[in-house]
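call fold(seq) -> C-alpha cells
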Amino acid sequence: MLISDDFSECIREVNYVRESLGSRATWVSPEALAELVQNLKRTRYLRHQPIVQAFINDAQNFSSVGRLVETKLHINERRDNQIFSLFNASYFPALSLDHLFYDALPSNDYLVDRYASNTLPVNMTQMSQGFQSRVVVALFPENHLDGSQDDEDLIFYFIDKFVERHQRITRKLISSVMAEGSFPNLRNATKLEVEQASSWWVHLHEYHHRHGDMPIPNFLSAKSSKPLAGLEELRVDVSAMLVCLHDEDLSRREATLTFEYILAERLLRYAVEGIPRPNYDAVASQLLFKYLTEHGGISLKNGRIKLLPPLPIVLYQFLGEITGIEKLIHHESVDQVRTRLLSFTNDYTDFDPEAKDYRHIPFFAEIKEKLEV
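ret:
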C-alpha cells in the first residue's frame, strides 16, 4: 500500500515510462501496447495504483475491445482523485502517457442542477510532464487513446490554469486597453473569486454546448472548421454571460463577477491568441469585438475600449443572429446552414483570400506586439 508521499514517485515513474513510447501512429498496435503494459508492471509504485491497474487491463484487451472501459469508469466514478491514461489529441500534443492528481472544487448547487453537465472543475496538485503544458487547460473524454465520448464521461477543467492565465495575460490587457471604470468587480477580485468565476464559467459553457438547435457533439463535424469552431465557442460563452445577467436565482455578486470575467477573457485574452495568425478562439473574439463596436455595445477611442450601456441588449442581438441561423437546420441542409454561419463570421472578421486564412485585425495585432502576449 502506498502512502501519499509516494505519489511523487508515481509521477517520476510515469515520466520515465512515457519516454519509451514510440511514434503516435504505433500506439494502438498490439505490440506497442504489450510493451507499455510490461513497462508499467515493472514500476515499483505506479503499478499499485487502482487506476493504473484499470488501464493495464484495458490495454491488454484493446485490440479486441477498442475502448478504455475500466479506465474511464474509474475516472467517471471518481474512485479517487487521479487521472491516468494514454492520450492522443492533436491540439494537446504534450499529452501522451500521463498521470494527474487533482482536487475537485466546491460547486454552486443551484448552478450545477439548473445547468447540468458532466463538467468537473478541479485544481491540479501533482502531475506528469504532459499535464504541465500551459495549453492543456481541460481534458475531454475523446482525448484518450480510444477517442470515444459517452454521455456519462466527465469533462475536466483545470481551473488553476485559468486563474494563472487570467493574472498573467488578461489583467495586463485590462490595464492597457480598457477605459477607466470597466470591469469594476473583476479588477478587484481575489484569486479565490476568480477561481469561483472560472468554475461557474465552465459549467455554463459545457451546458450550452449541449443545448440549442445545433448542439455539440451532434453537429461537431459541421462546426469543425476554424471559423465555425470559434463561432460555437462564442455562442456558448455569450449564452453563459446572459445567464449571469438575467438568472435571478443566482447570487448577483457572483453572477456579475462571472459575467465580467467571461467577457474579459472572451473579448480580450482570446483575441490575441495564435501566432502568426489567430486561432479559432481569436477569430471568434475578434468577430465579437467588431460586432459589438458596430452595433453600439462597446466603443474604441484613443486605444481604449469602453463598455456602453446597451451592451447587454447587443449581446442578446448577437446571440439571436447565431441562433436564428441555426434554427434553419430544421428546414435546410447542414451545408446550407454552415454556409450562412460562415458568411456571418466573415462579415465581422479579416479573412485573407490569398492565404485562405484569417488575420489579426489591426487593433489586436498592435496590442499583441506591444504587450508581447
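Residues 160-371 form one domain.
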